[in-house]
Amino acid sequence: MSAATVTSRIPHRIRLNLRAVVGRAYPRIVGANREPSWIFFEAILPLLGIAAYVFIYQALANRVLLDPTVSAADKAATVAATNALIGSVVLGGTMIAFWLNVLWSMASQLYWEKEIGNLQLYMMAPMSRMALLGGMAVGGMFMTSVRAITTLVAGVVVFSIVLQVTNPFLLIAVFFATLVALYGMGMTLASLYLLWGREAWHLSALLEEPIFFTSGFYFPAGGLAYVGGWGRVLLTAATAIPATLGLDAMRQLVFPGAWGDKLWIFSPEVELVIILVLGVVFLVLARYALAYLELLARREGRLTSRHQ
Fold first, then answer.
1. What is the distance between the alpha carbons of residues 145 and 29, in angstroms, rounded to a whole number?
2. Predicted confidence (pLDDT) per residue in 5-63, tens digit
3. Please, which of 20, 24, 278, 301 could form a disulfide with 127 given CB 3.0 to 4.6 Å?
C-alpha cells in the first residue's frame, strides 16, 4: 500500500493538523541546522559555564585529597562524591538547553509571531492551535536534543566522568516524560505570554536564572532542604517545574548511592509519576489558554489582555 493511499484514508481534520505539526517542526529540525557554526556555539560553548562549577568542585576535593591526615577510605569516598557532583553539573548543563528552548523558543514564540505579523495568519488558518504549538515543541525537542547530547558527550569525555546507569529503561522514560512536561509548560506559557503582551520578554529573562538555582541545574536540588525554612519553600515551589524532578531522577539513576542518598527529593519512580501528572496538567492548561485566546480574538478582535 502506497504512502499516498495511507494518507488519503486519514480523516481530513487529522491530516490537516499533522501537516501543521510538520510545517512548524520543519524550521527547527532542518532550518536551524543549516548553519553548522550554530551547533558549535550552542553545543560546545556551554561547556565553559559548566567548567566553572567543575573546577570549584575539583578544588574542594583537592583540599581533602592533599591532606595527609585524611584516611585512604575518606579520600576514596571524596573521589566518588566529586565524580557524582561533576556529573550532576554536566547533566544539569545539558538540561539547561531544554529550559532555555522552552523559555525563548516556546513561551515567547507566539508573542514574537504577533510582532512580525504571522500570528493573524495562524489564528485564521483552519487548524488546531495545539497542532501549531505541538509542531514547535517537536521541532524544539529534536533541535535541542542534538545540541544537548553533544554537550553531554563532550562533558563526559573532557571531565572524565564515570556513569553507572542502573535502570536504562526508567532513565529513558524519565527523560522523555520530562521533555513532554517541559514543552507542555512552554505551550501553556506561550498563551499566557501572548495575553500579557509586552511583558513576555521580561518574564522570560526574569525566570531564567531563578530556575537555574531552584531547579538544581548546577547542584542536587535536594540540598535546598538543608538550608532552612526558605530552602524548603524554594524546593517545594521548584517541584512544580518538570526539570527539577526530571534532573533529580536522572541523577539518581546515573549516580546511584551518591552522597548516601541524602540529597535526593523522592525516588525515581515517584518522580516519574509526578512528572507525568505535571505533563497532563500543563497540556490541559495549554488547551484552555488557547481556547480563551481564540474566544478573545473572535469576541473583541484582540489577542492580549488589554489594548496595546
1. 10
2. 545 556 777 888 888 888 888 888 887 667 777 777 777 777 888 888 889 888 988 88
3. 20
**Cα–Cα distance, 117 to 218 (Å, whole number):** 39
C-alpha cell at 15: 491530516
Single pTM value for the model: 0.85
Q: Which residue has the cell 556513569?
A: 163
- The predicted-structure confidence for 114-130, as pLDDT tens digits, reads as follows 777 777 777 777 888 78
Q: Is 79 exposed, middle or buried (0-12, 13-18, 19+ CB in 10 A)?
A: middle
* Contacts of range 16-22, beta carbons closer than 8 Å, 24 or more positions apart: 16/126, 16/127, 17/127, 17/128, 17/131, 18/131, 20/125, 20/127, 20/128, 20/131, 20/132, 20/135, 21/131, 21/134, 21/135, 21/138, 22/135
At 247, the amino acid letter reads: L
Q: Quote the CA–CA distance of 103 and 100 in Å, as a whole number.
A: 5
Task: Give me 168's grid cell.
Answer: 536504562
Q: At 227, which helix (H) or strand (E)? A: none
